[in-house]
Every structure is written in structure tokens, then in C-alpha cells.
Amino acid sequence: MQGKGFYESPKHSFTLDIPQKWMRLNIDKYLLISRDGPFLQYVLVQERHIDQPFRHTKKRFQRGMLPQEAAEVILDEISSDQSVFNFSVIENIPATINRYEGFRIVFKYRNKDGLGFKTIYYGVIMGERFYSIRYNAAERYYFEKDLKTFERVLNSFTITGAQAV
Amino acid sequence: MRYLFLVLILCSLTAGCLTTSLAPVTKDFRLEYDEKRLWQRSKEEQSVLNNSGLVYRDNELEDYLNKIARKLQPPEILARIPFRIMVIKNPYLNAFAFPNGVIYIHTGILARMDNEAQLATLLGHEMTHCTHRHALRAFHNRKDKAADLATVQENQIGCDGAVDLLALLGSTGCMAAVTGYSREFETEADMVGIRLVVRGGYDPNEAPKLFEHLTQELAEENIREPFFFGTHPKLRDRIENYRNFLDTRYQGKKTGTKNTQVFLTKLHKVMLDNAFLDLKAGRFYSAQRGAKKYLRIKPNDPRAYYLLGEISRQMKKQNDTDRAKAYYKKALSIEPSYPDPLRAIGLLYYKEGKKTLAKRSFESYLSLSPYAPDKAYIKQYLAQCN
Questions:
Q1: At B268, which helix (H) or strand (E)?
Q2: A82 vs B168, B347, B376: nearest CB
Q3: Among B103, B264, B287, B383, which is least packed by CB within 10 angstroms?
Q4: pTM for the complete prediction?
Q5: Which parts of B132-259 fold into alpha helices (H)?
């Protein structure tokens, strides 16, 4: 569906501004927006309890984890996925998300058809919840083209569930 | 989806040329028409896999594995099937053969084996799937293809890592790797395989031990069904079959070699690398076992102590912090200029609020590794320590 404008998650835990001409996929568990289709570019926002298991690593988040340790869990989750080819980390640094200390990872990979993708992944643990917002796009052409739009979405991203945890 | 599509294509390919029986490969072997297509498809899938970054590149190890494989088969078979053994970076215990003789072995199962005889058991089994043309026979024998497809889908559920593998491989690889073959083919691969083990001069009594490793893996990882060596017959039954076979055929006979020392020397590197993969996958106990096994071969390698420290730090169980520190200190006592344990020990001190000790460790870390990829984090910690 058309997703332009202010968005608040069903559980009122985060808000953001959806850019013009971007479409929103309505799923309770996450928010996915894209302009040309998720195969070309998307912004994905997820919220999860820290005890929720991952799919590819048996590691879990822990209470009191440093952002660097949380980033390591995310990287292990992605790099343990056997359908992610030629995975390489370009950057892994501390980052502030909505005033909270978190991390920013930039990585590249290829899918089984040989297509290259690039991702910017921000994450933060707040109490017992983990929030992430990532931008994923085809490395060729699309990544650069929509990077500024993602930055605007990121700047509008507000975690409102922070007070509740 | 891609998988199901390919299975349908292959089923339709074989539908017009059903063969009631196919002889195993001999010196007079000629590829059937649809077998050529199967081999071609295998090559395409191998090309994807070989360029995926998932293949473990170690020429010396590959040469060693291929040398063992060549010992198991007579020259006329080797002339017909160009067997090639490759290794996949994956800590799960698995191996699979493509119909054209290319066999992929996970680092996980290599690291778990104890000797060359167990390796020969695995190779003998997988090679038999190729020499006895199980992929083609499986397609030819399918009378109820719709039911088979349903079984294929059902078998995927509950197999750790299987969904990934399905996404990665097409039909030819998946047949062997994920869904396995029928009970008949798996039993044939076991029984022919063990004869190859004996032919190669190896101790066949090691064969059941390979399956015991798999049984242990199932229990530890709480995996409902293995997908290595197929899903039928059950592992326990197969161990029993091996034992019966050995009791009747080889009772009282002189046993062959195990080549334990050569095997451990050749595989020590993959053991440590796989233990790091186990850690990434959160398989802490497997990682711990791998690191300790490695230390029995290379008792003074600081990387193994660092790994044990990382396992303890990340497991976060009672007393693990102290244990982690002890391992890091051991690593540093062997190699004082090894930066990684310094960073790790610094993190532990930092989280304990011991800022002075943390600062000292982080500063040493950055002086040894000024371009460390996590420099930004460390500088942030140092700012906090100040």
C-alpha cells in the first residue's frame, strides 16, 4: 500500500516518516518499505525481544551487552547464513540511534544468482528489546541512488517504546 | 521454489526413458542421455558453490583428501568418474556428492573425525552414490512423483541448516545433501562403501564410530533428523547394520590401518578454523570440543586459547568470566604480541568497571593493532576510561 508520511508501529514502539512514492508492506512483526520492490531496495525496521532466537546462529543477545557485542551477534547471524555468498564487512562502528548508543554495520554480499547487495544496518539494545533499521539495495545503481532517502528515514526514526522497557 | 521446479524438470526428463535397472559404473560405462543432463546441471551448481566464498580453500588439505579417495577406487572407475573432493566452510556435520563425482565435505564433519579410516568411510559412502548412479536411479524409480515431492518438502522441515542448503543448491545437490536417498540406496552406499574402506587398507571397525559422532551431534544440537547420509534408515539401525556386517564378514580378520597421526597432522588447521565457525554459529560446546582437540595436536597455539576464552566470554555462564580471563592470559603468555586476547580481556575489565585495567589492555591492543577494524569502539571505551 502507499505509505507516504508519518508512520507509527502497531505496538507504538517506533515512528518514522515514509518517503514519497515508497510503498509499505504491512506486517505486524516488522516494517518494510520500498520504492521499486524489495529486490532492488528496501528499508526494514525490526523490533525483537532479546531472548528471541536467531535463525542461523544459536547465539543470543544478553542483557547489558555492549553495542560492539550486539553487532558481533548480528554479524555472526548473517555470516552463518549459507545463502549469503561472498559476505564482507566494510564498516563496524559505534553509532547513536535516537540518542541511544548502538552500532552501525555496513556490509556487502551476493545472492546465489550472483547479484551484489549492500546493506547499512543500525542496531540498539534498549533494556530487553533490540531495535534495528537497515537499508539494503542492489549494489549497482540502486544503493547510491536511494542512500539519501534512507538517511532522511533514519533521521526521522524515533524509538518510542524506550520508556516502556 | 527453484528446487521444486528443477525436480519437476528432471522428473519429466526421465519420464520418457525409464530404465528398470542401471548397472554400477564399470570400465564400459557410458552416460545415459538424461544422465548427461544431470552431470551438466551438477557442473552448473558446483560453479555457483565454488564462487560463493563458502568453499574452504586449502590446497594441501584438498590434495590429501583426494589422495585418500583415489586409494578407494580401482583405476578403471577413476577413469570414468572424475572424483574430486572439496571442503565447505560449515560447522554442521554433513557431506554430499553430486552425480558427476564431485563430493563436498563440511569442515564440521572433518573436524569431528578421529582418523583416516573414518574419513575413508565417509568417502566410500559418498563415492558409492556416484558409482552406483543413485541420483539417476532415484529419478527413474519414482513412480509417484507427486508423493515424492511432498516427501521432499516434508523432509526439509526440522533439519538445521537444510533450508539454507536448499536455497544454495539446486536439485542434484539437494537430492544427496538434504533429502537423502531411499533406505535401499543408503544401505547400498553403506555396504559397498565399507568394502571400499577395506580395499583401501583401512580398519573397517572405525566405520560405526563415524555414525556415533553423528548420533552425538544429534543429541547435543537437539536435531530431530540428520540430513547427512539421508534420513533412512535411522542412525542407530545403521550403526547396528555396520556392526553385524563387521561381525559376519570381518570377525577375526586382521584389521587395516587407521592412520590417526597423519590424519590429525593434515587436518589440524581445519579443526581450529571449524571451531571458530562453531563459535560464530553459537555452537559453544562443539567449538570448545574442537579447540581442545586442536590443543592436543598443537598444545602451544595461542589462537586456540584465545578461542576458548571467547567461548567462555560469550557463553556467559557462572564463573565463565574468570575462565575466559585465564585462557586469554594463557594465550598472551605464549604470544605477548597477540592483540586479540588483549582486546577481549579489556572488554571484560571494562564491563566489570575496572577502568584502569581495561585502559591498559585497550591501549596495548591498539598499539599492537593500530588499524584494528574495531578501533572506533576501542577509542570510545578509552574515552570512557579516562
A1: helix B260-280
A2: B168
A3: B383
A4: 0.88
A5: 134-140, 145-156, 162-168, 171-174, 183-199, 207-221, 235-249
pLDDT in the model for residue B155: 43
Domain formed by B260-385, architecture: Alpha Horseshoe (1.25)
Interface mutation vs chain A, best among B280, B316, B365, most A CBs within 10 Å: B280
- Mutation target to probe the B interface, by most B beta carbons within 10 A, among A50, A66, A82 is A82
CATH number at residue A15: 3.40.1000.10
Query: Taking CB atoms and an 8 Å cutoff, what residues of chain B touch A63?
Result: none
Q: How far, in Å, CA of A121 to CA of B346, rounded?
A: 26
pLDDT at B9 over 70: no
Residue B244: the pLDDT is 85
List for chain A the helix, strand, coil content (%; round to 5).
20, 45, 35
Q: Mind listing the pLDDT tens digit for each residue in B43-70?
A: 999 999 999 999 999 999 999 999 999 9
What is the C-alpha to C-alpha distance for residues B278 and B92, in angstroms, rounded to an integer? Answer: 8
User: What's residue B7's pLDDT?
Assistant: 39
Residue spans of the domains in chain B: they are 2-249, 260-385
**Residue A10's pLDDT is what?**
78
Q: Which long-range contacts (CB under 8 A, 24 or more apart) does B191-195 make?
A: B191/B241, B191/B245, B192/B124, B192/B128, B192/B131, B192/B132, B193/B121, B193/B124, B193/B125, B193/B126, B193/B127, B193/B128, B194/B121, B194/B124, B194/B242, B194/B245, B194/B246, B195/B124
User: What tens digit of pLDDT does each residue of B193-237 get?
Assistant: 999 999 999 999 999 999 888 888 888 877 654 555 444 457 777
Other C-beta atoms lying within 10 Å of the C-beta of residue B183:
15
A96 pLDDT tier (thresholds 50, 70, 90): very high
DSSP letters of B293-339?
HHHHHSTT-HHHHHHHHHHHHHH--TTHHHHHHHHHHHHHHH-TT-H
Q: Which of A78, A72, A76 minimizes the C-alpha distance to B347?
A: A72
Give yes or no for residue A163 having a pLDDT over 60: no
Q: Count structural domains, chain A.
A: 1
Cell of A110: 551476493
Q: Measured between alpha carbons, how far is B386 from B365 in angstroms, rounded to an integer?
A: 16
